[in-house]
Design a protein that fits this description.
Layout (H helix, E strand, L loop, with lengths): L5 E5 L4 H16 L3 E6 L14 E5 L9 H25 L4 E4 L6 H9 L4 E5 L6 H6 L7 E4 L13 E2 L6 H4 L14 E6 L6 H12 L3 H4 L2 E6 L5 H10 L3 E5 L5 H7 L2 E4 L3 H10 L3 E3 L9 H12 L2 E3 L7 H12 L2 H14 L4 H13 L5
Parallel strand pairs: 1-2, 1-4, 2-3, 4-5, 5-6, 6-7, 8-9, 8-11, 9-10, 11-12, 12-13
Helix pairs in contact: 1-14, 2-3, 6-12, 10-13
């Protein structure tokens, strides 16, 4: 093992994969590790938040799930080239541990680690394994399977290690932040639609807020993440209803906005659920109906079953129904406070520490 240990982290191009990777990078750099991140062009959009000490390596991404017949034919060659490039890089600078966070861009690094017999593990953020992690989640292919959501649906014979989903330092700084229950004063709402916003939230949330009783509506101010093409109509909808709203395609200060919020309306991506739980905020979670194996419903289940959030499936998402759920939370301070407390109890603020311990155990050659 080199004097300064090196971890290679491979992650696909969504916030769900990249945010846990960022959290682990922050922690390992602080412990004196070198960190190299392997991602694709989409993932590179999230690297601005990574510490400067992280070496960013952009790889060509290929998927068998999209791109038509030609794309599916080319994908194996693209992936193979990536594997050979990863092997070459790892022979030149041998990693101590390799970790994959899922997504097709993680295939080259994890495959190279398997072929070179390097210590390796995967981290699955969702309650259902993604396609790539499903392939690697075999005892012969990786040394450990870390699970962010518990329970996680795993292949027969595979034992997962519940680490939780690491959250970024900026989220952790606000872990368990004091919650101000809703009342007869300004109240904040945060609306998050995942990496690219969500049209269905842009279609329903402004109208649902506009339909609230005046005693609640007049106190609300909204931070709403919407796709660029939806920005103007969402902003206009709030303005016509006389609601103070900040509409942006991507918020760089989510931790601050979430900590100030009396209510969060969000997709049920694993990182979003982890952030909401660690900070501890009442939430209305709307799982993405087209998510593979309905994994967002699995992500939301523990929090909603215990009463920290309300889950609304897309098929049941109407303006009237959503408005009723919002009113039930913001109109009942005791209920909102209880939801906040339950959410906080569900959070795993030490998820990064748990994952670091697992990485160090593999680095030291201990059995799992």
């Amino acid at each position: 093992m080199p004097d300064v240990p090196l971890i290679v982290m491979a992650a696909g191009g969504t916030g769900g994969h990249m945010f846990p990777a960022q959290a682990l990078a922050e922690a390992l750099l602080a412990k004196g590790w070198r960190v190299r991140l392997s991602t694709d062009a989409r993932g590179a959009r999230y690297t601005d938040g990574f510490p400067k000490g992280v070496q960013i390596e952009q790889v060509a991404s290929a998927t068998f799930a999209r791109g038509g017949v030609l794309g599916k034919l080319i994908a194996p060659f693209t992936i193979s080239n990536g594997v050979f490039a990863a092997i070459k890089a790892m022979r030149r600078d041998r990693p101590t541990v390799v970790i994959g966070f899922g997504g097709y861009p993680s295939i080259p690094a994890v495959t190279a680690a398997f072929l070179l017999k390097l210590p390796r593990l995967i981290h699955e953020q969702n309650g259902v394994l993604g396609r790539v992690n499903q392939f690697f989640a075999q005892k012969s292919r990786v040394d450990a399977v870390a699970c962010g959501t518990w329970p996680t649906d795993l292949p027969a014979g595979v034992e997962g290690i519940h680490t939780g989903n690491p959250v970024r330092a900026t989220i952790l700084d606000r872990a368990g932040a004091a919650y101000i229950p809703p009342g007869d004063y300004p109240m904040s709402m945060l609306v998050m639609g995942g990496s690219q916003g969500a049209r269905i939230l842009s279609d329903t949330v402004p109208a649902a807020i506009a339909a609230l009783p005046g005693a609640i509506r007049r106190h609300i101010r909204v931070s709403h993440q919407a796709r660029p093409e939806d920005h103007d109509r969402v902003s206009d909808a709030y303005a016509e209803a006389g609601i103070d709203a900040d509409v942006q395609p991507f918020f760089t200060d989510v931790p601050e906005r979430m900590a100030e919020a009396q209510l969060v309306i969000s997709r049920a991506g694993a990182s979003s659920v982890a952030d909401i739980s660690v900070i501890g905020r009442p939430a209305i979670l709307i799982p993405y109906a087209a998510a593979t194996a309905d994994h967002q419903t699995a992500n939301a289940r523990a929090l909603t079953d215990l009463g920290g959030a309300i889950m609304v499936q897309e098929a049941a998402l109407t303006v009237a129904a959503l408005s009723s759920h919002i009113a039930a939370i913001l109109g009942d301070p005791a209920k909102a406070l209880k939801m906040s407390q339950v959410a906080t109890a569900c959070g795993i603020p030490d998820a990064t520490t748990r994952l670091v311990t697992l990485v160090e155990t593999l680095a030291n050659g201990h059995d799992q």
